[in-house]
Design a protein that fits this description.
Helix content: 10-25%
Oligomer: single chain
Shape: globular
Structural class: alpha+beta
Strand content: 25-35%
Radius of gyration: 34 Å
Number of strands: 40
Number of domains: 5
Length: 708
C-alpha cells in the first residue's frame, strides 16, 4: 500500500491515515494502536507531519504576490517585475522670511544650508522641518528674501566606501521611514577628494549607457532602502575606494500634516562663509504643511505592481495612466483615466485624467502642471493629456429602523451603533475610489446587523451633487450624476436648497416638470406664505432622466442659502446601487443622512395584533425642497419643522395650540413641529379656530442639519 498524499492540515485525519497505513502491513494486522506505546509514536509522526505541512503551505503562500502576507516578501516579488513601492512622503510647507544684512553691505548672497530650517508645533507635538539641499538667495538693497518649501523630518547624512574585495557589498541606508524623493547621492573619487559628482536617481534603464552616472533604489527589509549602481554596461561602475555620500530626510509621513506655526532654527551663511545670526525676520507661512503620506500599503503594491509591469513605462491605454500616475505622484489616493472617445461629445486624441489626493479634496494647479511634465516621458506622440477636477457624488440615505425596545438599553445607544456601522462602511474600499459602487443590499444588512434589537429597516437612497455657483455672474451649469434618475411622471423628482436670482424677489428653488420618460424641464419656483408653489420660470434648463444629467441655462445667481456659494441638488436614483462613473467619486454622507428609529410593537409584544403598527413608505416623498423651507415672507427666526425640514415662513395657531404653515388656514397648510421628527406629508384640514402669526421681516437664516 502506497503512503497517503496529505492534502489537509487536520491532525486527527493524519493520525487515522498513519494507522491505516500500518494496519495494511501484516506485522501490525492485529495490533491495538490505542492501548500501546506505538500510539505515542503515531502522535509524534502526525504532529511532525502537521507542522511540516503547515510550514510548507505558508512558504508556498509567501511565494506569490497575491497570497503573501509579509511586507518584505511582497516587496521582493514586486521587485522581480521592476516595481519599487512608494516610500513615506514628508509633509511639505511653504514659508517666507527675510535676512537683513544692513544698508551698504558688501555681501552678494546668503545661503541657507541643507538640514534643519524650522521647528513647528501642531496638536501639542513638535516637528522639525528641513531642506535637502543648500538654497542661495541674492542680496538686494541689503536684504535676502527666501520663499521655500520645507519638508518635515530629520536630515541625515551617510557615507559608504566602495570595497571591490567584497563581491556582494551592499549600500543600505541604515534608517527606516526615509522619504526617497529627498535622497541625494554624490560620489567622491577617494576619501581625500573634495570634488563631488552628483548622481541621478532613475526608475528604469531606458536610455542608460555605460557612462551614465545614475543609481537605482530598492526597498529591503524593515522599510529600509538600498542604493544600486551601474555595472559598467548599464550605468557607470564605481571603482575601489570611491566614497558614496548620501543624504536624505527621515519623516513622520502623514503625522506632519497641518503644521502652520514655525520658528527659525536653520543655518545661514554669507557668500564669504560667515555665519549669520541676526537680522532674520519671523517666518510667514504661505501654505501649511500637507501631502505627507505613509509608505505604500501591501494591498496597493499587489494592485499596482502587475499593472506597472504591463505598462512597460509607456502610457498608451487608460489602464497605463492609472498605473503610472501613483508612481510619479504618491499623494494620489485614487486615479481614473478615460479616452476622449468616451466623452460627450467625443474628443479624439485626448485622454482625461482625474485624481483624488490623499490629503485635500482636489489636486492643485501647480501639481497638475508638474504631472503633465512628468507624463511626457511616458506618453505617446499625438495623445494629449488633460486633467479634470474630480466630481463628488454624495450618497445619502433616509432610513426608518424598526427595533425591539426590550433588547436595547436606550434609543441613543441604538442610533450610535447604527451610525458607527455605517461610518465603517463609508470608509471601506467599496467606496472612496473611482469606479466604486454603493451596494444597497449590503447597506440593508449592515443596518440590520448593527444590533440584535433591530427587526427590520426601510431605507431610501438619495444622490446629491453640489453646484458651485459663480455668484453675481451670468453662467451656464452642467451637473452629471452618472446614474439614471427615477421619474415619477409627476415632476418634483429634483430638489434643491434655496438661492436668490437676479430680478426675482425671495428665495428660489430648482425642480423639474415631466415632458417624457427621458426628458424633463428644469423650473424655478418659490414658496408663498402659505407654502404653496409659485412657478417663477417654467423653463431654465433640461433634466435628462435616462442618463442622470441636469443642464442649467444661462442664469445669474446672487446668493445661496448654503455657505461657500453652493446649491445642493438631489435626485432619486432609478437603481439603489450607485456607480461612480468616469470622474465621479462616491462619498457616503452619513452627516446628511436621516436615521430614525421606530418601535416595533409587534416584536415587543405591545400589540401582537398589529392594529397600531406604524408602517413606513418605501417611496420618497415629503418636502418639495431640500434643506430650509423658506417662504415668500420668511425671516431669520426658526418657527419649527415641516416634514423634517427647518421652516422659516409665516404661520397660524390652531385652537389646540399647534402651529400650521401660512398666515391663514387653507388646504395647503401643513403642521409645524418643534423637532425635526417624521410627519405625514398630507395636509391637515381641521377647521378649528386659529390666530394668525408671522415670523417677522425678511432676513437670513441658519443652515439646516439632519436629525438622528
Amino acid at each position: 500500500m502506497s503512503f497517503t498524499q496529505y492534502t489537509n492540515l487536520d491532525f486527527e485525519e493524519i493520525k487515522v491515515s498513519l494507522r491505516e497505513y500500518l494496519r495494511a502491513n501484516s506485522n501490525f494486522t492485529d495490533y491495538d494502536f490505542e492501548g500501546s506505546n506505538l500510539s505515542i509514536l503515531i502522535d509524534t509522526l502526525a504532529y511532525n507531519t502537521y507542522v511540516t505541512a503547515f510550514n510548507t503551505n505558508m512558504v508556498a503562500n509567501e511565494s506569490f504576490i497575491d497570497s503573501a502576507t509579509l511586507r518584505e516578501n511582497i516587496v521582493a516579488l514586486a521587485r522581480n517585475v521592476g516595481y519599487v513601492p512608494s516610500s513615506r512622503r514628508a509633509s511639505t510647507a511653504n514659508i517666507s522670511f527675510t535676512v537683513d544684512l544692513g544698508t551698504g553691505t558688501s555681501k552678494s548672497s546668503v545661503t541657507l544650508k541643507a538640514g534643519l530650517v524650522a521647528l513647528g508645533d501642531f496638536a501639542n507635538t513638535n516637528y522639525t522641518f528641513c531642506v535637502p539641499e543648500d538654497i542661495i538667495s541674492p542680496v538686494v538693497d541689503g536684504f535676502a528674501e527666501f520663499t521655500i518649501d520645507i519638508k518635515q523630518g530629520t536630515y541625515l547624512i551617510n557615507e559608504f566606501v566602495v570595497d571591490t574585495s567584497q563581491p556582494n557589498q551592499k549600500f543600505i541606508l541604515p534608517n527606516p521611514y526615509v522619504d526617497t524623493s529627498t535622497i541625494n547621492v554624490k560620489i567622491r573619487d577617494t576619501s581625500t577628494s573634495s570634488s563631488r559628482k552628483p548622481y541621478e536617481k532613475i526608475d528604469n534603464i531606458v536610455g542608460i549607457s555605460s557612462t551614465s552616472e545614475t543609481y537605482l533604489i530598492q526597498e529591503v527589509q524593515d522599510e529600509k532602502y538600498e542604493l544600486l549602481f551601474g555595472d559598467g554596461v548599464l550605468g557607470k561602475k564605481l571603482s575601489n575606494g570611491n566614497v558614496i555620500n548620501s543624504s536624505y530626510i527621515v519623516t513622520d509621513g502623514a503625522g506632519g500634516n497641518g503644521v502652520s506655526n514655525f520658528s527659525f532654527s536653520g543655518k545661514l551663511v554669507d557668500n564669504d562663509g560667515g555665519l549669520i545670526v541676526s537680522g532674520i525676520s519671523d517666518i510667514t507661512t504661505n501654505q501649511v504643511s500637507r501631502n505627507g503620506s505613509e509608505v505604500e500599503s501591501i494591498d496597493t503594491i499587489r494592485n499596482l505592481a502587475p499593472r506597472v509591469y504591463s505598462a512597460q513605462h509607456r502610457a498608451v491605454t487608460a489602464n497605463d495612466y492609472e498605473a503610472i500616475i501613483p508612481t510619479i505622484f504618491p499623494n494620489a489616493e485614487s486615479v481614473t483615466a478615460y479616452g476622449g472617445e468616451d466623452s460627450n461629445p467625443p474628443q479624439y486624441g485626448k485622454v482625461f485624467l482625474s485624481i483624488k489626493p490623499k490629503n485635500g479634496r482636489f489636486v492643485s494647479d501647480f501639481d497638475k502642471r508638474q504631472l503633465l511634465d512628468k507624463l511626457k516621458r511616458y506618453s505617446v506622440a499625438g495623445i494629449r493629456q488633460e486633467f479634470v477636477d474630480l466630481k463628488y457624488l454624495y450618497i445619502e440615505i433616509d432610513t426608518n429602523v424598526y427595533y425591539n425596545t426590550n433588547a436595547v438599553p436606550s434609543v441613543d445607544t441604538l442610533k450610535t451603533r447604527i451610525r458607527n456601522s455605517l461610518e465603517t462602511y463609508a470608509n471601506s474600499s467599496d467606496l472612496n475610489s473611482f469606479g466604486s459602487r454603493f451596494k444597497y443590499s449590503k447597506i440593508l444588512k449592515i443596518i440590520d446587523d448593527s444590533s440584535a434589537a433591530i427587526t427590520s429597516n426601510i431605507t431610501k437612497v438619495i444622490i446629491r451633487r453640489n453646484l458651485d455657483v459663480d455668484v453675481d455672474n451670468f453662467a451656464q451649469y452642467e451637473l452629471c450624476f452618472g446614474n439614471k434618475f427615477h421619474n415619477r411622471n409627476k415632476g418634483y423628482n429634483i430638489k434643491s436648497t434655496g438661492f436668490t436670482v437676479d430680478g426675482i424677489r425671495g428665495t428660489c428653488y430648482f425642480t423639474d416638470t415631466y415632458v417624457d420618460e427621458k426628458i424633463g424641464r428644469l423650473i424655478i419656483f418659490r414658496l408663498s406664505n402659505t407654502g404653496a408653489v409659485e412657478i417663477i420660470n417654467n423653463n431654465v434648463g433640461t433634466v435628462k432622466y435616462d442618463i442622470g444629467e441636469i443642464l442649467i441655462d444661462t442664469i445669474r445667481i446672487l446668493s445661496t442659502r448654503k455657505e461657500d456659494n453652493v446649491v445642493e441638488i438631489q435626485a432619486i436614483p432609478d437603481s439603489n446601487d450607485i456607480i461612480g462613473l468616469k470622474d465621479l467619486y462616491l462619498q457616503f454622507s452619513i452627516a446628511e443622512s436621516n436615521i430614525s428609529v421606530v418601535e416595533d410593537i409587534i416584536s415587543t409584544g405591545a400589540d401582537t395584533s398589529g392594529a397600531n403598527y406604524i408602517s413606513t413608505s418605501s417611496f420618497t416623498n415629503g418636502s418639495k425642497v431640500r434643506g430650509d423651507i423658506v417662504t415668500d415672507t420668511a425671516s431669520s427666526t426658526l418657527v419649527g419643522y415641516v416634514g423634517g425640514q427647518p421652516y422659516y415662513g409665516s404661520f397660524h395657531t390652531m385652537s389646540d395650540g399647534s402651529k400650521m404653515t401660512g398666515s391663514t388656514h387653507s388646504s395647503d397648510s401643513q403642521a409645524i413641529l418643534s423637532t425635526p421628527g417624521i410627519t405625514s406629508s398630507s395636509s391637515t384640514t381641521s377647521t378649528g379656530s386659529y390666530s394668525s402669526g408671522s415670523s417677522g421681516s425678511s432676513g437670513s437664516s441658519s443652515s439646516s442639519s439632519s436629525s438622528y
